[in-house]
Amino acid sequence: MVVPTATAPLPAGPLTVPEMDAITADEVAIYDRQIRLWGMEAQARMRNSKILLIGMRAIANEIAKNLALAGIGSLTVLDPEVVTEDDLASQFFIQEEHIGMNRAEAAAPSIRKLNPRVTIHTDTDSPSSKPPTFFSQFDITIATELDLDALISINTSCRQCSRPFYSAASYGLYGYIFADLISHTFVIERDKSNIETRLAPETQTRKVISCRTKKEGDKVVEFVTKEEKYSSLADTVNCPIDPTWRPRKRRTVPAALPCIKALWEFIRTSPTHNYPTFSRTDLATFTRLATEAVANLDLPADMLKASFISTFVEGCTSELVPVAAILGGVLAQDVINVLGKREQPLQNFLVFDGEVNAGPVLSLHPEGIAKEENGNGNRAKNGEIETSTAEVVSLD
Amino acid sequence: MEEKQQTKPNPRDVGPRKALGSLHQRIKEARVLMVGAGGIGCELLKNLVLTGFGEIHIVDLDTIDLSNLNRQFLFGMQHIKKSKAMVAKETAGKFNPNVKLHAHHANIKDAEFNIKWYKGFNLVFNALDNLDARRHVNKMCLAADVPLVESGTTGFNGQVQVIKKGVTECYDCTPKPVPKSFPVCTIRSTPSQPIHCIVWAKSYLFTEIFGTSEDDSPEFDHTKDAENAQEIEALRRESQELKKIREQIGTDSFARSIFEKVFTRDIQRLCGMEDMWKRRKAPTALDYDTVETAAKGIPGHTANMDQKIWSLEENFVVFVDSLQRLSKRVQELHAEDGDKSILSFDKDDVDTLDFVAAAANLRSHVFGIELKSKFDIKQMAGNIIPAIATTNAITAGVCVLQAFKVLRQDLSSAQMVFLSRSSERVFSTEKLSAPNLSCDVCGVARATVEVDLSRATLDDLIEGYLKKGLGYGDEISILTDQLLYDPDFDDNVGNEFTSMGVEEGTFITVMDDNEEEGENGEILQPRVNLVLAVVNKEIEEDQDPIVPPEEGMVIPRKVKQVEAAPAPQEAHGAAAGAGMKRMHEDMADSNCGAKKRKLDDATAELSIKDGRRGKGKMEVVEVDDSGVIEID
Q: ipTM of this predicted complex?
């Protein structure tokens, strides 16, 4: 009936949103059902956020819808391409009459209609033409359906200005989400357990940095501030699965993961930078790349079946709306959580297999991230993320 | 048509066909029903339309509200108060002109949506927000033998379940908790939590002043009345006194009369019950004049500050102000209809919410209980469940992926899917369980019975259809939503069905209590419950008014059981709020929620094996804007 956890106000002090930014009564009425979940402060933070969304296809439709409904401050949709007939099959912001228009510009009016409170900008430039400073104007950059080189380039730019980066794509029934939040601090609200919360590392990337308790009626609620450290996509892409995983657990990794990596490599190395076709030569090349990816990931060699490879390749250019809805929903929710500085964020590679409804989140990092984290913590500093982190820390 | 598409394929088909192969053709030919066009429904309809499901029927009786717009993206400001089904069809229709859409702005329980109608669908999707409608559609899908994809969300949590008669568990195979109720004395005499005072303000004070009597409220649990007979009698007198004050409505002294009754005199009486306060803190009565003096200068629009926890004086001001607003409305209504109208509490009706918030807080103050903001009281009084677009979007996506398996007729790979809040995975999945043999809903035999309702009597059913046709003995009970017949109650035997409220679409349950001896002297267990769906049919006068059962129709016998124990107590006792809370605690920040569920399931499976009803599985039910949340 009641969810006091979520609406319990965080303590006053530096966290309080300035008066001018406070949520109005109208906004409370519209956002009522979500404020009851993540609270007023998170809603206010979201309202002041600027998000960049690159590539306007099925997943991006879902992300734009979810972020606009949630009430972010502004959304910039960037896409240099034009709407084709294919786009109509998996997108709901556009119709026949938009064919030939720029994809971002075609979608923008429909996104605006979803929530007039959110400012929608469009940008028709190529993402590769953007200087690194371009990305500093956004709190978070989300790149969808791009090839690996483009993703790494944008990710690198985002890192230079200490901005979180997400990427995602769907390939038929399969897909992925990658997150590089550089360094992210968040609060978990939970009932105090009998076991004392220790200010110590929890995983190779996550540590508890502070903990505060509050009495609510008969029980004690704990606000645990944690920090996650991330790796760049360039560093992640060659990483094996966590070496501590036992063979049995390795077998639970979807075969879609090596196939996604093979697909990236295929596009990168093919002369036309295109997706593989269902031709014999393309299949053979793809199979070789996928087998290499299995080896690089340190996964069991027999996990990759020829039948799976051909299913994957045949469907990899299609976008299925339910798959896009799932990936776009998960990604948008993670962005919302990150903006609100609540909940555990994705760390750092989600593989989705829509055939069996599996969505494991793999933590892929180069060796020594834990060491680096404790040592020279200069991966990200002075960014806005760090500044606001300080606010959360001061809770304690 | 097909050939034409082969030569120049529709661009909308190219992608799905590559990824889904031959399944795509089945999708294009599928005729599906979506019940509910709310949070999950809007997302689901978008998915179904864009995936290219051939024909989609949408049923929803609701209209669009402002608080829907944060997630029900097919609706905009201009659609407020319009039919959800109609607007959803209009907006989503533009996503894909090749799909046939039909909208029904109606209650899914209406008679027009009968079993025959259900049989016309390949698949049904539940995108509902309440237990009652979910149960109804579950039952109809079982009766029509149509697969059902059931879904629900609450906050960050969501789940999807595929249900197929005879193959999987049905929605009711695991017990669902009943809504939380409170002992009368807790609400009326010894409140200890804010919710007690809110229920008091909403279901006692408000209804006694503006509605009908509180005795009907499902929130009151009368099971302990007998133990507290004296106090119950005193409370009854108090209610009657309050009813008398109701006659003063509109007079200048109305607010004072009510206030002094419930916050002064009633409290003083309670204070006199010394035994009651030996282990509790006794309440403190309020004095109208003292509070009124202290409240001087507080503006009436205090009520707009819904995030703030109001002081005693502020609550007093809102109490008096909202009482005046409501009194005025009631008087205006009565001027029109001669004192007939009543008001009922509605969380979105500001006057009623203000009154309940202020009255609840004044009572909390009296009993030394923590006061709450109007925002929080709205949630507790209105049973509001947090709801967000993303959870609904993800859940609706899963619904379609599960539907693919149903259309492929590959139920063995269909799953029960939960959104997981673990850091290691986004979903946790389970194989679908086999039907619970002792389920009251799917563990029954079902048949359609053709009846000439213009003349058939109960006796025709008992003697003709059941005894002669199916071999039933004397020890039977027959019921609809009321008892029609049992061996000790034969008053209705000569009555026509229509006089007992039986009509087209009514389900009649026949329970067999006969243990009889078989041909070889073995003991035969009673038959499983038989559920008959009534179909009206004109039958020639010279024939029996009920068409006899098909030749060879046999009602299976119950499996010999240790004891078909009723659902365990904790399933009923689980406080909605507490259950929800528990779930959040379990699932936040780890996957222990999933582990716990696994454990519960293991228990359930074990229990089914030895023939007893298992412990409930964790259930999420979206309750969007009304009703209660059920989580176990």
A: 0.89
